[in-house]
Amino acid sequence: MRLAKYLAHAGVASRRSAETLIAAGRVSVDGELVTDPARDVTDESRVALDGQPLAGAEPHVLYALHKPVGVLSSASDARGRETVLELVPAAGLRLYPVGRLDLDSSGLMLITNDGGLANRLTHPRFQVPKTYRVELAGRPIGQRALDALRSGVELDDGPTAPASVRRLSARAIELTIREGRNRQVRRMCQAVGHPVVIALTRTGFGPLRLGALAPGAHRRLRAAEVERLRAL
């Protein structure tokens, strides 16, 4: 493992910040000062920052969280607004959210310190499905709108991939997409003539379901659930 990655896994800093620490001469390996972030290290290597030994990689954790409306899906906020990381126990670990939900949306989010898994769950090439319940204002949802969503609609940043859609009621649908563009679900609804979204809740992320998890509540995923996510 490269030294910068080792520091990131140890929870010292992000990989980019770890490279800065190494270049500044603050990291040693087996008693030798190292300034090359690409230096290979193993679990047996004695790595220290500013002379203080590091314990090695953090244990990986993965939480499911029901993000409430009005909470930011980011690690921090310069304006002091509440973020999703304030709703889970960090226990000294450097956690971050996987993917995003906008301020006015709620539902299932994942919180972890496993960067590799987070990348697999959010990178477009893995096409991890995400499911939403969408409640719309205005006229009932017609068959033409459903067919358009299933075929893919044109947005200002290009056409969407076909979505899976199920009508739940006259003004509510369940929508599953495999992309992750900014405010994509809201923009897709607007593109088919339903610009006003009353409520948007993510109910599924890959094989996981929101279930009965209450707004603001979290739970740590079981080992079998984590393995199902890794297998996507």
Key words describing this protein structure:
232 residues, alpha+beta, Structural Genomics Hypothetical 15.5 Kd Protein In mrcA-pckA Intergenic Region, Chain A, Alpha-Beta Plaits, 3 domains, four-stranded antiparallel sheet, 15 strands, elongated
What count of helical segments does DSSP give?
6
* Major beta-sheet overview: 9 strands, mixed
The CATH superfamily name of the largest domain is Pseudouridine synthase I, catalytic domain, N-terminal subdomain
Low-confidence spans: pLDDT under 50, at least 5 residues?
Answer: none
| Total number of strands | 15
Helix content: 10-25%
Quote the average pLDDT.
Answer: 92
Q: Give the class-level CATH name of the largest domain.
A: Alpha Beta
Reading the helices and strands in chain order gives HHEEEEEEEHEHEEEEHEEEH
Determine the N-to-C terminus distance. 24 Å
Over all CA atoms, what is the radius of gyration? 21 Å
> Which structural class fits the helix and strand makeup?
alpha+beta
Question: Mind telling me which CATH architecture of the largest domain this is?
Answer: 2-Layer Sandwich
Large-scale geometry? elongated
Percentage of residues in strands: 25-35%
**Count of spatially separate domains:** 3
CATH fold description of the largest domain: Alpha-Beta Plaits
